[in-house]
């Protein structure tokens, strides 16, 4: 899986490319850092989702350079069940808090 970040912090989108070379544009829902895992994470959702459609959120850990930029090799799949549970907990907190999710 490859990624390309488009735009600046105001327009945060990532193009993901699967193993077959198919590209799909994603919006960045939010990013956060976990001190427990000493990693940064990004949560994404497809940009082409309509208002009435369910949204499938994807999560990756990532490495940014000293300037904070993320390149195509910087997204990493989350493989540990404990790590997934932590990310799911952060997402649930985000979704349950109207101030964070913009509900």
TrEMBL record:
<dbReference type="InterPro" id="IPR009711">
    <property type="entry name" value="UPF0473"/>
</dbReference>
<dbReference type="Pfam" id="PF06949">
    <property type="entry name" value="DUF1292"/>
</dbReference>
<protein>
    <recommendedName>
        <fullName>UPF0473 protein JEM47_08225</fullName>
    </recommendedName>
</protein>
<comment type="similarity">
    <text>Belongs to the UPF0473 family.</text>
</comment>
